[in-house]
Design brief:
The chain is of the alpha+beta class. It has four domains: about 110 residues, Zinc/RING finger domain, C3HC4 (zinc finger) (Herpes Virus-1), CATH 3.30.40.10; about 55 residues, Herpes Virus-1 (2-Layer Sandwich); about 70 residues; about 150 residues, Apoptosis, Tumor Necrosis Factor Receptor Associated Protein 2, Chain A (Sandwich), CATH 2.60.210. It is built from eleven helices and 24 strands. The chain is elongated and about 190 Å long. Bound molecules: zinc ion (7 copies). One zinc ion binds next to loops.
């Protein structure tokens, strides 16, 4: 028999003799079967040199290691040796199972007893041997059961047995982990309805059950949106609908009427808006016509001096009268007329006569400037003879700071021909002004640039 004391021996529990009974009493003359230390059938018999007694190998070695005297004769000096012939005889004797009192009927040679008991089995031999031996659960749960019960424990009771969640069929672990840790969170785990309607629903479907199905969930009446404020458990709603048929119909009717009224009101609103658009369009057309009518007046304003009686007429500058080809006109010694302007809105039409080579006292030395009246659009409604003052200036083209101004006054002292209404031809042959307006020597560089003079009628005073 292969004993393996190192493997089986534990700190507090040494392997000692065999705990069993002989089927028939052993022949005492030939063999001492009981160990004087453990009082069981001797395992691995060792004989001592002092008194010749036999002990279990482990029992006597324990005595020697603790320096005790021989347990039977008290001799201090002794040694021990394996008694192979005793072992041979002893191990062939027939014994009953150690669990005879529990009900095991096994008998066999002593050497076969450990094999029958199979106390620390390999996993694949777990079920072999004495059914009354307590063995460890293979899942190491700490439980010990008689061999005849161990399978039942491992299949049905062991908290560490392999176990899969039967609800989601997905999570697999030990029974302990699945039931304690997984089930409280498993989405497929059946839980009772929180409304206590009696249904058991998978955890993941609780919300939709309560929202859409549960007979105990409080819901609004179907006619909530048109004014029925009743809230009832879902299961009571059909009765409410049956009993309040007329109420609901009248709610529907008044809601319908209200909607129609709203629709009518909206239609009226639309019509009103359309009318408004039509009238705005009409107004717009009228305004456009007025603008078109004003166009000629604007043109007139553009050609008129803007200051009348020292009062500005508007934001526009008086027009600049551009007169080019000075040298040619000077050589030709002719009468040179500016573009026409109006003195003011619906005023007198006038122009400047410029003699480049001078006239009368300015002949050959000066530029002469005269104001000439012209036949104008508004002459009928104007006062004649013209009375007042007209100012004009030749513009400084270098820095604009030295404009040279002349003013002609039209009072009772001047001859009528200079201020009378023009009835023949386009303009008066007579101009009133200044023969020595500006000397030729003064012209350059300020007033004559690119053979061009610039004039402006910048102020008109009416009397
Ligand atoms: Zn012993
Ligand atoms: Zn002894
Ligand atoms: Zn047995
Ligand atoms: Zn177990
Ligand atoms: Zn699960
Ligand atoms: Zn429910
Ligand atoms: Zn209702």
């Amino acid at each position: 028999m292969a004993l393996n004391p190192n493997n089986q021996q534990q700190a507090d529990k040494r392997i000692i003799g065999f705990d069993c009974e002989f089927v028939e009493p052993p022949p005492e003359r030939y063999v001492q079967s009981e160990c004087p230390v453990c009082l069981q059938i001797i395992r691995e018999p060792h004989q001592v040199t002092c008194c010749g007694k036999k002990f279990c190998k482990t029992c006597i070695e324990h005595i020697k290691s603790t320096k005790k005297t021989c347990p039977t004769c008290n001799e201090e000096e002794f040694s021990s040796f394996a008694d192979k012939s005793s072992k041979q005889l002893l191990y062939s004797l027939k014994v009953r199972c150690s669990h005879q009192k529990d009900g095991c009927e096994w008998t066999g040679e002593l050497r076969q007893l450990d094999g029958h008991l199979n106390t620390d089995p390999q996993p694949e031999k777990q079920l072999d041997g004495c059914q009354f031996v307590e063995i460890d659960c293979i899942y190491k749960c700490g439980n010990q059961q008689q061999r005849r019960y161990i399978q039942n424990h491992q299949i049905k009771d062991c908290p560490k047995r392999p176990f899969g969640c039967e609800h989601c069929h997905d999570y697999k672990s030990t029974y302990d982990d699945v039931t304690n840790n997984h089930w409280p969170v498993c989405g497929s785990f059946p839980v009772p309805c929180p409304n206590q309607c009696g249904s058991t629903i998978q955890r993941q479907n609780i919300d939709s059950h309560v929202a859409d199905e549960c007979p105990l969930t409080t819901i609004n009446c179907d006619f909530h949106h048109i004014g029925c404020a009743v809230k009832l458990p879902r299961q009571d709603m059909p009765e409410h609908l049956r009993e309040n048929l007329l109420t609901h119909i009248s709610l529907l009717a008044s809601s319908h009427a209200k909607q129609q009224a709203e629709t009518t009101q909206q239609r009226e609103e639309i019509t009103k808006q359309q009318d408004k658009i039509t009238s705005l369009e009409a107004e717009n057309r009228i305004l456009k016509t007025k603008i078109n009518e004003l166009e000629p007046m604007q043109q007139l304003l553009k050609t008129a001096p803007l200051i009348v009686n020292s009062r500005p007429l508007g934001p526009l500058e008086p027009p600049v009268l551009t007169m080019t080809n000075f040298q040619q006109h000077k050589r030709d010694d002719d009468q040179w007329y500016s573009p026409p302007v109006y003195t003011h809105y619906q005023g007198y039409k006038i122009c400047l006569r410029v003699d480049a080579n001078g006239c009368n006292t300015g002949k050959g030395t000066h530029v002469s400037v005269y104001v000439c009246f012209m036949r104008g659009e508004f002459d009928d409604s104007l006062k004649w003879l013209f009375r007042g003052a007209i100012s004009y200036q030749i513009l400084d083209q270098v820095d604009g700071k030295g404009h040279k101004t002349g003013t002609d006054t039209y009072d009772d002292k001047i001859p009528d021909k200079y201020c009378t209404r023009v009835t023949e031809g386009e303009r008066s042959k007579n101009g009133w002004g200044n023969s020595k307006f500006i000397a030729h020597t003064e012209l350059e560089p300020k007033y004559l640039q690119n053979d061009t003079l610039l004039f402006q009628i910048n102020k008109v005073v009416l009397k």
